[in-house]
Design a protein that fits this description.
Helix content is about 35%, strand content about 20%. With about 240 residues, the protein is an alpha+beta fold. The longest helix has 18 residues, at about 10-30.
């Protein structure tokens, strides 16, 4: 459409594929978690890490540089390559093989910790043709603890289920369990500049009117992520 010979995929397509691969890595390997980082050159990006010992594995997912594994400088999947490949499963397996983490011995179940990652990936993939911009904002290392909140969480402070969620975070923090569990505990799903939902690591999605048990819905649907997400978000997923 632009008349140029240089192809650059729209961010929404790249984001959807990056999140799918990242979420599947976490589903397939239970010790992996996702965190969001900000960099002067890369902008905001996500990173799959082994947790709590990040030295074991760090894989970056960026709109700019694609997929890169820390310590494996010769390996990269560019954004263009990510969209050209016939199946994203091939990318997933290539990342596992390059790092040496390997594939899981059996098909692992989705957990309360990973259902949110999969739901985010599903939404981003489903809404690529929406007239709205669908993005995610996650907790970053420089943010105040979710126990104390922060400016980035201000849009959800008045939601009815948030006080109980913050109380649970405080209990976990008091027992030194909060950040031993994961580096990021809240992910905001945004339609344009409007926050639609907050995914936590307890298998729930919080909305302006209530919270929904996404994990329970996933189990009740026979492990159908599409049914679970549509039930949880409903009319919020408007094209």
């Amino acid at each position: 459409m632009s008349g140029t010979t240089v192809f650059r995929a729209a961010d929404r397509f790249v984001d959807a594929q990056l999140w799918w691969v990242a979420s599947e890595l976490c589903r397939r390997h239970s010790r992996l978690r996702i965190r969001e980082l900000a960099h002067d050159e890369l902008g905001t990006f996500i990173e799959v890490v082994s947790w709590p010992d990040v030295s074991e594995l760090r894989i970056g997912f960026s709109r700019v540089s694609g997929i890169r594994i820390l310590g494996h400088d010769d390996f990269a999947v560019t954004p263009t390559e990510l969209l050209e490949v016939a199946s994203p499963h091939a990318v997933l397996k290539a990342v596992e093989a390059e790092h040496g983490i390997g594939g899981p011995g059996r098909f692992p179940p989705t957990t309360r910790e990973t259902i949110g990652y999969r739901a985010i990936a599903y939404v981003l993939g489903t809404m690529v043709n929406s007239r709205h911009s669908w993005t995610v904002r996650g907790e970053r290392p420089e943010d105040p603890s979710v126990v104390h909140g922060g400016a980035w969480l201000s849009p959800v402070r008045g939601w009815p289920s948030i006080p109980q969620l913050r109380e649970q975070w405080a209990i976990d923090a008091a027992h030194d369990a909060l950040y031993n569990k994961a580096p990021a505990h809240a992910w905001l799903l945004m339609r344009d500049l409007e926050v639609v939902g907050l995914f936590d690591l307890h298998g729930r999605v919080h909305l302006a009117t209530a919270s929904r048990d996404l994990f329970a819905a996933h189990r009740a649907s026979g492990s159908d992520i599409a049914q679970a997400v549509v039930w949880a978000l409903g009319s919020h997923m408007r094209l």
